[in-house]
Amino acid sequence: MSALKVLLGIGTSSTWCGCSCSCRSTGGGPATAPVIETLPADASLSKTAGMPSRRSLFWPSVITLVGVVLTVVLGTWQVQRLTWKQGLIEARARAVAAPPIPVPERVTPEQEFVRTAVRGTFDHARELHLTGRAYRDRPGLHIITPLILEGGGVVLVNRGWVPNAARDPGQRAAGQSAEPVTVTGLIRLGSQRTWMQPENEPARNNWFYVDVAAMALATGYGDVRPFLIDADATPNPGGLPIGGQTRLDLPNNHLQYALTWYSFGLTLVVIYGIWVRRRLREQG
Fold it and tell me: Which of 96, 145, 180, 229 lies most in the core, judged by the most C-beta atoms within 10 Å?
């Protein structure tokens, strides 16, 4: 019987989940109403109530960190490219400003854009046409002619630009002198074909990029120097071709690129900070 009273909570005093319940056991009287006691709030909850959970911050933080690191790396790479490009521009300026050198047998990459002076006779019958070239927004082509050197050997000379209407040498007969001439210009090593350019067509005398070896083969000469000379702007008889077509300027936008990447990184940090602050307000 006493065990049953214990199970029914009669004549006992118990505390459960913060509630103190006392029931009379004498005379079979009714149990008294339970008294509810409120437990104090957990101090740790009060400290973290205004902070977003770690889980909610984890992936945004990782993504922001990766983005910032990536933009800093790319910005620093552009700064390095800026230093490299400035050195290249300065080296080219020094080469162009230096006095002309005798035409060499061979050249190194460091000698590109060095000025040289040569004397010989043009073989106009074997001129080559470098198509798709413009001059002051006018379409045309460059005339590349083998020059037979007085000391022996042959060098290809880019004599300059002519309009498409003057592709036929008969349209510019005044500039087709058969007399020995002195040519001053810049040493060039040719160019690589870009993905936008078609293949050269030697059989049709259509050249879209400068392949010195293939051009030398097309002239039929054996002893051709492995480089090209871009003639300077000295006027030719009759006004054509127009020399001095070498592009000496180099695009140098690396500083702008670096600042752009760094600004992207800063923007990510600002956005992340605003987002965290908003979460704090929502949970505060």
Answer: 229
Whether 263 is covered by a domain: the verdict is: no
12 found inside a domain: yes
Please compute, for residue 282, the number of CA atoms within 13 A of its CA located in the half-sphere on the CB side.
9
Tokens of residue 125, six digits? 């019958």
Same domain, 151 and 231: yes
Q: What is the spatial distance between Cα 133 and Cα 113, in angstroms, rounded to a whole number?
A: 20
Q: Which amino acid is at 228?
A: L
Please report the pLDDT score of residue 40 as a whole number: 52
Between the two ends of the chain, the Cα-to-Cα distance in Å is: 55
Residue 251 in any domain: the answer is no
* C-alpha dihedral (229, 234, 236, 242), degrees to nearest 10: 70
Asked if residue 76 is part of any domain, the answer here is no
How many CA atoms, within 13 angstroms, populate the side-chain half-sphere of residue 109?
A: 2
CA angle 219, 244, 209 (to 5 degrees): 45
The pLDDT-based confidence of 5 (bands split at 50, 70, 90) is: very low
Query: Domain boundary at 239, 255, 271, which?
Result: 239
Which residues span the domain enclosing 37?
2-42
pLDDT the model gives residue 95: 86
Query: What is the pLDDT, as a whole number, of residue 59?
Result: 87
